[in-house]
Design goal:
The complex is a heterodimer. By secondary structure, chain A is α/β, with parallel strands linked by helices. Chain A has one domain: Collagenase (Catalytic Domain), CATH 3.40.390.10. Chain A is 24% helix and 12% strand. Chain A has a 3-stranded mixed β-sheet with strand order 2-5-4, with helices on one face. In chain A, strands 1-3 form a two-stranded parallel sheet. Chain A starts with a helix and ends in a 7-residue tail after the last helix. Chain B is globular. Chain B has one domain: Leucine-rich Repeat Variant. The relative contact order of chain B is 0.11. Classes of the chains: A alpha/beta, B mainly alpha. At the A-B interface, strand 4 and helix 3 of A face helix 4, helix 6 and helix 8 of B.
Chain lengths: 152, 132
């Protein structure tokens, strides 16, 4: 978790974006340790995702939440699909160090690209070739214009 | 030449399994039964992340060798591989599903049992098994 968050901070810092970690909660939700994410499609979530993302203690309305789980069903490294009004993503414990930043990128509105030098590579963040991966200017604009980011 | 082709396919399979969000049905169609030996090798290896994804992909490949590999995955050391086997069992024939799900119903891990129960319910397997 610490490594993934630090990696995300590094990448987003290159775009002039500061990422703060505000709170952590250990959830005792044994039935959601392996969470059903269906097809992991934005705008379409499972009953288990709705239950999991209902856990937002000590979190602001526009704060992003990452739920670390043992696995997703079916198996992905992470999934950015989330219920409306509950921005966040799921990341599995065996994911790459870049997965958190990648999934939060999806939550903030940026999409896959076919380039392993970039954070949003659709070829898998395990395959990133020149760490830290890049965010290009159009992606940075989208991140900054997201209703979930704010100027400081 | 055949060896080089296999090597290329294995590299493609690994590249697929290293993705963050995976299109399993598309990969099953792309790689087919030829991928099964390598996928089984990965499920039996030491990388939990790759082993789990390989087991999910096995569940999407419609071939006898894939069924055999999925049955073997039901006894895997990694819990998440056994979950993948339970998930994949829902799309197998009744006998294969019975072998996998019957075994995993008694698994010590609650996540495995949860997905096993879901797969049993999804196809109403109990009714099918009682009839047969």
């Amino acid at each position: 978790m610490n490594e993934q968050f630090a990696a995300m901070q590094d990448v987003y810092a290159t775009a002039g974006i500061r990422v703060d970690w505000s709170t952590t909660e250990n959830l005792s939700l044994s039935t959601l340790e392996d969470v059903d994410v269906g097809g992991c499609t934005m705008g379409s979530v499972t009953a288990e995702q709705i239950t999991l993302f209902g856990n937002r203690n000590f979190v602001g309305t526009n704060d992003l939440v990452v739920y670390y789980v043992r696995s997703t069903v079916p198996g992905y490294n992470g999934c950015a699909a989330h219920p409306s009004g509950r921005p966040g993503c799921v990341v599995v414990r065996t994911a790459s160090r870049w997965t958190l930043g990648h999934e939060f990128g999806h939550v903030l509105g940026i999409h896959h690209v076919n380039n392993n030098n970039r954070l949003m590579t659709g070829n898998g963040t395990f395959n990133i070739t020149n760490p830290p991966p890049d965010l290009v200017s159009t992606e940075v604009t989208t991140l900054l214009n997201s209703g979930l980011s704010r100027p400081i | 030449m055949a060896k080089a082709t296999n090597t290329n396919m294995n590299e493609d399979i690994l590249a697929f399994l290293r993705q963050d969000e995976l299109d399993y049905p598309g990969a099953a169609q792309k790689f087919g039964a030829a991928a099964v030996p390598f996928l089984q090798e990965i499920t039996e290896g030491g990388d939990e992340n790759l082993a789990t994804k390989a087991a999910y992909l096995l569940g999407y490949i419609n071939d006898e060798t894939a069924k055999t590999a999925l049955v073997a995955a039901a006894g895997n050391k990694f819990t998440t591989v056994r979950i993948a086997a339970a998930y994949g069992a829902a799309s197998q024939d009744a006998d294969t599903a019975k072998t996998i799900l019957g075994r995993l119903l008694g698994d010590y891990d609650h996540g495995v049992v949860k997905v096993t129960m879901r797969s049993i319910g999804e196809k109403n397997w109990v009714k099918v098994w009682l009839k047969s």
